[in-house]
Amino acid sequence: MKPVYFENGALKLIDQTLLPTEEVIRSYTDYREVAEAIKTMVVRGAPAIGVTAAYAVYLAAEEFKTLPTDAFMLHMKDACEHIKSVRPTAVNLAWAVERMVVLFKNPVGRNPKTAVAALKAEADAICEEDIAMCRAIGEHGQKLINRGDTILTHCNAGALATADYGTALGVIRAAYDAGKNIKVYADETRPLLQGARLTAYELAKDGIPVTLITDNMAGWMMKQGKIKCIVVGADRITRNGDVANKIGTYALSVLAQAHRIPFYVAAPTSTIDFGMLSGDDIVIEQRDPDEIKYIKGQQIAPDGINFENPAFDVTPHQNVTAIITEQGVVSPPYYRTIPRLTIKDR
Predict the structure, then answer these.
(1) CA–CA distance, 313 with 279 (Å, rounded to integer)
(2) Can you give the three-state secondary structure of 120-140, one letter per residue?
(3) Are 337 and 325 in contact (CB under 8 A)?
């Protein structure tokens, strides 16, 4: 399942706002429309956003390649700033854009026509690297899963959140493929129901046993001994191991501690912000209150009241049992182990 890929001169995205009832592939040739697709969550999940952003930079270069060099550079700078601005929390977005920027800032890249070819090759490389990283994350992570485990996952960190295979669901897929006879609980993940719409959809298509629960059932399921571990993805991990992920992740980490259940985070090293010391510095995206007020166009809350709709929360490193990356499993103390990881130059 590929939520993002480039084909016949256009970027293709599965419209995740329509899943699971409709499977529609959108086609894009304008970087502005790609940026809007990221903002409106046609594509979502930190790794998938990074891949999409890389292709958006390439599409901008295609549009401006006939301009004189100075004009090309100016328009590309504006385009990249626009792409980076649409979602502030997921670090992969800025990481991918900055990796692309390096190419057209060097002497070769300053030739617009040369830059276009280099940017396309780099976007393709980012996509292929993401697929390989997710496979490696799955292989490292499945070693932490015991035979017969029932795993809780939150939001969607599957193939739909990456270029293919997934991070948290990559671990689950690899454990299932290893014959470990696992089962999965997916919580709904309000307000946009990515767990119900996307995670349950992916797992069902793969034939992996999945049970859907509402977000507020998780603690009771843990109390009953029905959940043996929790595996989630991440949108940004700081140098000390604090983890920004979909709103509700922090609460699950607290419940996991109370019930002595391992809490694992699966993410590629591109999701680690090595320059950010702690989660206190993470900008939390605030989204449209209508996401809470309505479900699929149906109003569920009264007019005239206040709403808060943070898209993410921050789980402190003390609550994280281990971070699973493509380079291996990273254990506490994270302020020592995370800096030992390497990441492709930006």
Answers:
(1) 9
(2) HHHHHHHHHHHHHHHHHHHHH
(3) no
How big is the CA angle at 311 (ends 306 and 316), to the nearest 5 degrees?
115
Give the span between the Cα atoms of 278 and 60, in whole angstroms: 33
Catalytic residue ranges = 235
Q: How far apart are CA 264 and CA 112, in angstroms?
A: 44
CB 342 within 8 A of CB 269: yes
Domain boundaries, the chain: 4-134, 139-340
Peptide bond into 262 cis (omega under 30): no
pTM over 0.90: yes
Digit-coded pLDDT (tens) for 265-276? 999 999 999 999
- Backbone φ and ψ of 94, nearest 5°: -65, -35
Q: Which CATH class is domain 139-340?
A: alpha beta
**In DSSP terms, which residues pair with 246 in a beta bridge?**
312
281, two tokens: 């510095």
Contact 28, 14 (CB under 8 A): no
Range 4-134: architecture per CATH = Up-down Bundle (1.20)
Q: Which of these, 8, 32, 49, lies nearest to 285 by C-alpha position? A: 49
Model pLDDT for residues 227-239, shown as the tens digit of each residue? 999 999 999 999 9
Identify the three-state secondary structure at position 114.
helix
Give me 221's structure tokens. Answer: 């399921």
Alpha helices of 86-187 — where are they, by DSSP H? 91-105, 112-142, 168-177
